[in-house]
Amino acid sequence: MSNAAILTxxxxxxxxxxxxxxxxxxxxxxxxxxxxxxxxxxxxxxxxGGALLYPxxxxxxxxxxxxxxxxxxxxxxxxxxxxxxxxxxxxxxxxLFPADPSAGDQSAYAQVLNPGFRLVxxxxxxxxxxxxxxxxxxxxxxxxxxxxxxxxxxxxxxAISIPIDTLVFLAIAFYGxxxxxxxxxxxxxxxxxxxxxxxxSFGSVYLVKDDRx
Length: 213
Prior knowledge:
This protein is mainly alpha-helical. 74% of the residues lie in helices and 4% in strands. The chain is globular.
């Protein structure tokens, strides 16, 4: 096989992996925001439902860093914000039309989904700040260790970005809607879930080749 053919195959492989990681990242953000509309309990602690999925976005973000670099990763985060805003804007648009009385009571639709705007804004702000911090730490660890200790890049960056991401998201999305005791419970449970999931899933970054700086 010629060098040109090998290069083409390598480029195709990288593009497919980048596309898959991008789609999964955006999908997880959407599902997590929808899940966050419901506050659940795990044991004795309250937590927004989105926390069950949101930690996996950190792994997808790290995969994107490896495959496509910082600029593409930031573009995907921006696209996820646009898609989420469009989703809840459409939900809001639907609520402007009168409900059909023959279909029964539909007031729950607006009551449940309209608060999603705060979730989206909180998600965008948290993701943007966490991404900037995560990228700085990730790049610093990589410069120091090179291709070695990829696990340290992920764990070190997540250790700092996760608490900041959680605090910003909860403050924007839920402050004023719930008692402070509930918010504190949600904060600690979010940390536990995110650290647990990121620790379990960080090994997946070894499944893809480090293509970009």
